[in-house]
Amino acid sequence: MAALTPPQARTLRQLADFDGPVTVRELASALGYRSTNAAHEHLVRLRRKGLLLAGRRFGVAAGWIPAAVMLPDDEIDVLCFWRGTAAHEIHAIAYMVAGSWFDSRTGERMDVPPTHWRNLPEPPP
Q: Rounded to a whole number, what is the largest CA-CA distance in the chain?
């Protein structure tokens, strides 16, 4: 898969921040675009790369971003997922520093990188 351009990466990150599917107009507004054209073009390219659910509204599959496609910013806690058999699928909160993953609870380096990650939700009010 081709690497993401910086605008595509920004678009994917913004989509992951939404709680569910989003319209092109909502995405363009969140990205600060005055027109929906640029947001739509990024969405089309992300869909071609197989990274989006699509229909009338767009969204990252449940907010998960494949780690092979894009990594989170350093030192930001994210929810991580390791794909395996149903009995071995794991979720944990972790962060990255200089390309290495660390467990947020223990601070220990993780030997196996996650397959997917997503931003943590906002805490309840």
A: 47
HEC string of 41-105? Answer: HHHHHHHHCCCCECCCCEECHHHCEECCCCCCCCCCCEEEEECCCHHHCEEEEEEEECCEEEECC
Q: What is the pLDDT of residues 24-41, one digit of tens each?
A: 888 899 999 988 898 888
Domain extent for 85 = 78-119
What residue type is assigned to position 90 of the chain? I
pTM of the shown model: 0.57
End-to-end CA distance of the chain: 40
Count the domains in the chain: 2
Residues 54 and 93 in one domain: no
- To the nearest 10 degrees (0 to 180), the angle between helices 24-31 and 37-48 is 110
User: Is residue 72 a part of any domain in this protein?
Assistant: no
Please check whether residue 73 lies inside any domain of the structure.
no
